[in-house]
Amino acid sequence: MTTLAPNEGAASDGVLDELIDPMAARLSRAVEPLQVAAILESEGLNDRIARDRYGHPDVFSLAEAAYSRMTVRRRDLPPPPPPGLVPQRARPLAQILHGLLYGLPAVLLPAASGLVGTRWLMPGLVLTTGIGWVLGSAAAQLAYTLVGRGHLRSAGRVLRTGLVLGVGAAMLTATVISMVRGGPVSLVALCVMQMAFQIASGILLFYRCEGRLAAMMLPAVAAGLAYVAVGDSRAGLLTVILGAICIAAIVTAAVLLTLAEGQDDPASEPPLRTLVRAHLRGLLPAFLYSTLCALFLLQAEARYVLDRSDLAIAGAGLVLGMGVLEYRAHLFEDRARATLREVFYPAQFISSGRRLVAGGLLACVAALAALSAAPLAFLYATQALSAESAVMAAAHVTVGGAYFLTFLLANQGKVAHLCVAQGLALAVHLGARLLLPGAESALADVLLFLCAGLLFLIILLVLMVTGLRDVRRYR
User: Fold this and answer.
1) SS3 track for the chain
2) Would you list the domain boundaries of the chain?
3) What is the band of 89 on the pLDDT scale with cuts at 50, 70, 90?
4) Position 73 confidence tier, pLDDT thresholds 50, 70, 90
């Protein structure tokens, strides 16, 4: 084999980065190329590997190139913050309450159904919830991207646009239902209220205004609980009116927040159309994944909203626990970054990372199971508990565990993998329902949903555990 000169066919910066990143914690302490060479040899690199894979005649030449590359990278990066000042992404109380905050309008449903009727209210809300889920997720994804690049005003405009599109879509959807199926006109107003709250509350949470959201919605929640105790039709009307006022205040606060952000920075930003076009390719997988998530959950629940309210209630634990999933995902990121500063070998990080994944997953499943016990206890007290509702609750706990892993994988940029996994789980549930005999029964259907959720969880767990080998994604 021909020996290469030191600069002939030498590895590019990208190839050197792939060599350096898994050993960055150890290599960063090297003060001369000889120390780098010793570390490379301890990892099993010899002269032959240096020639064949990296284009250097021996390990010492490769070590000099790696040391030079690390020197350039240190010069380009800002100095690391002191250990005590490393920003923490996890905010325990605020993030854990996110699920509860999203579920606050549910207190108004008894009063609203008394005015509109469950026959019309629930299908309308199911459709608008799915649309709001997709639009809100897409707008938030693009807004986070723009904020990360310093375009605060454009991020606010994206969020406002998502709010307008969501309200328009809810109005159109509810109008079509009312015209085609002969539903009441009040259905349009209630669906618009629900969509406005869903997206506007997401904007407040985007700007970390959890306390403001809770305070503005508190009067409506109190009125909804009072209506459940009283049950008078006039009280129901007053409850809905008060809820509309509270939601209008939340929408106003959300719009004002989006208008205020970035106004203190005089620097001009590129046109929003240009920014959106630049990030559109990266946004499409996230949009597809949000759509698949909405379809997976709503297709499993929508068929039961009219005649099997126990199955709809059984899945409430997942909604209430979404904040727990978010908090545990941020906590995992914080602990993974801390672990990187403590270990010396990639194998050590992988071992610690597996324990972090297992601990986070078990904590999420335990929290969701505890939250699901409340609706099941309510069903038991009202003599509506059934085998189907118990299985439906277990399925939502399983899917919730999978969604904890989706947060982790999304933070690693593996949205395409998530689309494939979610699409496969959706296809398994729908396909089995169509092909298997007797799958149309409620018990068989929720069992299939549980199996699809378990498949989804297993696929994501494999992706997550194998992804721990790519240490640089956790820096």
Assistant:
1) CCCCCCCCCCCCHHHHHHHHHHHHHHHCCCCCHHHHHHHHHHCCCCHHHHHHHHCCCCHHHHHHHHHHHHHHHHHHCCCCCCHHHCCCCCCHHHHHCHHHHHCHHHHHHHHHHHHHCHHHHHHHHHHHHHHHHHHHHHHHHHHHHHHHCCCHHHHHHHHHHHHHHHHHHHHHHHHHHHHHHCCCCHHHHHHHHHHHHHHHHHHHHHCCCHHHHHHHHHHHHHHHHHHHHHCCHHHHHHHHHHHHHHHHHHHHHHHHHHHHCCCCCCCCCCCHHHHHHHHHHHHHHHHHHHHHHHHHHHHHHHHHCCCCHHHHHHCHHHHHHHHHHHHHHHHHHHHHHHHHCCCCCHHHHHHHHHHHHHHHHHHHHHHHHHHHHHHHHHHHHCCCCCHHHHHHHHHHHHHHHHHHHHHHHHHCCCHHHHHHHHHHHHHHHHHHHHHCCCCCCHHHHHHHHHHHHHHHHHHHHHHHHHHCCCHHHHC
2) 13-79, 94-269, 283-475
3) low
4) low
Distances (CA, A) of 62 to 11, 43, 65, 459: 9, 13, 5, 38
Answer with the residue of higher pLDDT: 85 or 327: 327
Longest dimension (CA), the chain: 92
**What is the model's pTM?**
0.72
The 10 Å Cβ neighbour count of residue 330 is 18
Structure-model confidence comparison of residues 57 and 25, the more confident one:
57
Question: What pLDDT sits at residue 359?
Answer: 94
